[in-house]
Automatic annotation (TrEMBL):
<feature type="signal peptide">
    <location>
        <begin position="1"/>
        <end position="26"/>
    </location>
</feature>
<protein>
    <submittedName>
        <fullName>BNR/Asp-box repeat-containing protein</fullName>
    </submittedName>
</protein>
<dbReference type="Pfam" id="PF13088">
    <property type="entry name" value="BNR_2"/>
</dbReference>
<feature type="domain" description="Sialidase">
    <location>
        <begin position="222"/>
        <end position="299"/>
    </location>
</feature>
<dbReference type="InterPro" id="IPR011040">
    <property type="entry name" value="Sialidase"/>
</dbReference>
<keyword id="KW-0732">Signal</keyword>
Length: 480
């Protein structure tokens, strides 16, 4: 039985530029009561039952009004969740139902104690692909799983294991996977992830700077997820280097694949993280060497009044591509615009297939406070939207709450300049108290938040806390 809550109506901020959009958004509640509430698998650690985090969204190009979102359900304090859940809507996000994904023991699927890093993508024939990192806390067994839905997200089958590194092998940990359906070729999809490799033990997914190495792996399906190719390395790195946040976008005009990621290199200081990419012009058979776009000069995110850390997507770049022109975009957290004091949202774009990139610009409103967890998408008329959280409503001296809002900003000129051409915020959600979020090595609503498009309409898919609730700390919302 779904937990019923009234939808929250959020009043938007009038846009500085007219973009044919409403100044008020209705945020629809997506998530319900945890289907894993009675599961006792996965300890030790603190489990936050009814806490949803890290959502992702895909719009179905074959079924008008069908949206599928995925998220972590019942987050653990020390990594992963009881399992992953999918929400689906057939009325453009107004109402939602949900079902479990078969990636953990709590879900009766893969026999792993926890699951994490949910992702979903939908092909031109309506086939939806989802993937997971599934792993144990009691030992070092871990895998990348995949499943498919052909009914708009109601049911999921073709459960596959793309890679598994189980006991007694303790050297490898697969992490931070994503899946991308080819937008013009039905039945084809691509999965990418990095695998942390230690000389003598599992370095765990969060200890990025001490991993021995972390190359990027790639697998592909050409039959709608019935089978997947054997994983292969597409970004090989030397000792003490790794990738993270791998994500593929596809040029609908010529079929070129671009895999974006953070390339982590020594020395491990503010310039260690680099926005980079590789590309393939033969559908993944061969790939270029990494090209660096810019440093990710992140300093992380903390509560300005207490110094308490948040865990955000500070080392995860987010890419997008214009489906009509192939123009590329990437956003990330960066402190370069304020002298290294706090993270804001940087954007760079390329109009020539990644050969050259624009100088990074800030795309958040400059409030003197951190902005974080950006997502970026391009709609059918070439407008670019970026969503993010920030702390602008936090008053000096307030240590009891951490009011947080989500915003959307847009550009109609392809992000080529800053100012009146990339601005005009719309208030998406908030304020809500971030201090209610689960503590998973810092207050945590996810390393990423979802954003997709229906024609010209942008659909943020995101987490809000239920301020002050210790039994239902967070929920997933959509704001179409």
């Amino acid at each position: 039985m779904r937990r019923q809550k009234p939808a929250v109506r959020l009043i938007g901020v009038p846009l500085a530029i007219v973009l044919a959009t409403s100044t008020a958004w209705a945020a629809s509640l997506v998530s319900g009561a945890s289907p894993f509430a009675s599961c006792t698998i996965g300890g030790p650690g603190t489990n936050y039952v009814n806490a949803e985090v890290e959502p992702w969204l895909a719009v179905n190009p074959a079924v008008p009004g069908n949206l599928i979102g995925v998220w972590q359900q019942d987050r653990w304090s020390n990594g992963g969740a009881h399992g992953l859940v999918a929400g689906y809507s057939f009325n453009a996000g107004k109402t939602w139902e949900e079902t479990t994904l078969p990636f953990s023991a709590c879900a009766g699927g893969l026999a792993y104690e926890r699951a994490s890093d949910p992702w979903v993508s939908i092909g031109p024939d309506g086939t939806a692909y989802t993937v997971s990192i599934s792993f144990n806390k009691s030992n070092n067994s871990n895998a990348v799983g995949a499943a498919v839905s052909r009914d708009g997200g109601k049911t999921w089958g073709n459960l596959s294991v793309l890679i598994a590194n189980n006991e007694p092998t303790t050297q490898f940990f697969n992490d931070k996977e994503s899946v991308t359906a080819n937008p013009i070729k039905p039945g084809i999809a691509y999965a990418v992830w990095h695998r942390l490799q230690s000389p003598n033990g599992n370095p765990y997914a969060n200890l990025h700077t001490v991993a021995f190495r972390g190359p990027t792996f790639f697998a592909k399906t050409v039959n709608g997820g019935q089978t997947w190719s054997s994983p292969k390395i597409i970004v090989n790195v030397p000792s003490r280097q790794q990738t993270i946040g791998n994500q593929i976008v596809v040029n609908s005009q010529d079929g070129t694949l671009y895999d974006f990621f953070n390339l982590i290199t020594p020395p491990f200081n503010v310039t260690a993280n680099k926005v980079a990419f590789v590309k393939s012009t033969d559908d993944g058979a061969t790939w270029t060497k990494p090209q660096i776009i810019a440093d990710m000069r992140t300093v992380g995110v903390t509560n300005p009044n207490t110094g308490k850390a948040l865990r955000t997507g500070d080392i995860i770049p987010e890419p997008a591509i214009d489906p009509a022109t192939g123009q590329l975009y990437v956003v990330w957290q960066d402190s370069r615009f304020n002298g290294g004091q706090f993270d804001e949202i940087a954007l760079s774009t390329s109009t020539n297939g990644g050969n050259t990139w624009s100088t990074p610009i800030p795309v958040n409103t400059r409030t003197g406070r951190a902005a974080f967890n950006p997502s970026v998408r391009v709609n059918s008329v070439g407008s670019v939207a970026v969503t993010y959280y920030d702390f602008r409503d936090l008053q000096a001296g307030n240590t009891k709450t951490l009011p947080t809002n989500m915003w959307r900003t847009m550009s109609n000129n392809g992000g080529q300049s800053f100012g009146s051409e990339f601005g005009g915020e719309l208030h998406v959600a908030g304020p809500f108290d971030m201090k209610t979020a689960p503590n998973a090595e810092g207050l945590f609503v996810g390393d990423y938040q979802g954003l997709d498009v229906m024609g010209t309409t942008f659909v943020p898919f995101f987490i809000q806390t239920n301020s002050g609730s210790l039994t239902n700390r967070t929920d997933v919302f959509a704001a179409p």
